[in-house]
Write the structure tokens for this entry.
Amino acid sequence: MEIIRARDYDHMSRQAANILSAQVILHPDSVLGLATGSTPIGTYRQLIKWYEKGDLDFRRVRTVNLDEYVGLGAEHEQSYAHFMRVNFFDHINIDVKNTNIPNGMNMDEEEECARYNGVIRGLGGVDLQLLGLGPNGHIGFNEPADSFTKGTHKVALAEATIRANKRFFESEADVPRFAYTMGILDIMQAERVVMVVSGEAKAEIVKEAFFGPVTPRVPASILQLHKNFTLVADEAALSKSY
Ligand code: GLP
């Protein structure tokens, strides 16, 4: 595990964007695993800037997103499909046909999970997976549990996640209770994993996840065992670790 200690959010975003752009420049047909949440927004902004300067070309890039709320269609403002368009895809030359995200409107859980697992397999797996960190240590929507999950599955969101994500909805009652998410094994099988974390509010969970024991109670802790994992965190997020 490698740790890049950034000065602040902007520096963290630039450092993470550097790693992603190197991947795209060296391997223009890369499969990028992408994440939502507020933390990666700065990374996407930086990549957009470099694309606008002519330094990056996404024409051949393929993407798989980690997760989607069950019950929200791609047009819903809080869906992750919408998030990805507004924060990234609409601003670069990616082919939408090359972007993948679980379909939150497919109520047939078995069918949707099998479909998405097939998408990931069909792409030959993920070359570089970008991650944020949930306040309870979740990655994607893999919540604290008794064991680590494998492939795409439907999850009931933890109370902590519903509370954390209610800021994006009119009220807590509007936050979806279920999501589809790629599993921990999918994430662990990515060739490279990069996580962005910022701010003091994440300092305690960063310490637990990366300076404590590996346990499914803190899902992100398993990344300590990944062969090529880089944590890009700012000083505030690392303030309780060292
Ligand atoms: C959501 C997403 C996660 C993300 C987390 C943290 O729950 N499913 O993928 O990492 O939020 O979000 P933020 O970066 O806003 O703290």
Summary: The chain has a mean pLDDT of 97.
